Amino acid sequence: MFGPAATIAFVPYRDDFTDAETAGFAGWFYRVVGDAPAGAVLVLSGGGYPDVSHGGRTKMFRPHNHELAGLLRGGRLRGLDELARYSFATWCTGEATRAGDDTGRGSAGER
């Protein structure tokens, strides 16, 4: 995987830290990859929770759609069989079977 790194760090959710422009994965995705995402590598930091999934086949269609070179996650993701069919390379530590929503965590603006 080669390309400029675009990092999203998942931190505890705070209502007072969120605005409509950057809320959710989509807002942070566009904020970090900028106007020319093709060829970038999306790095998802798990904030010390490697067993919590921060995305899967639906959310990770965005890097595919914007022609990113790769996705690097220091933890688990969901739907690896479908992620393998996307156009970018994926590296993670394993597959999660469910979303990590009950941890009360997510990227700023995401529950």
Automatic annotation (TrEMBL):
Pfam family of the protein (one): RraA-like
Designated name of the protein: Uncharacterized protein
Organism: Saccharopolyspora erythraea
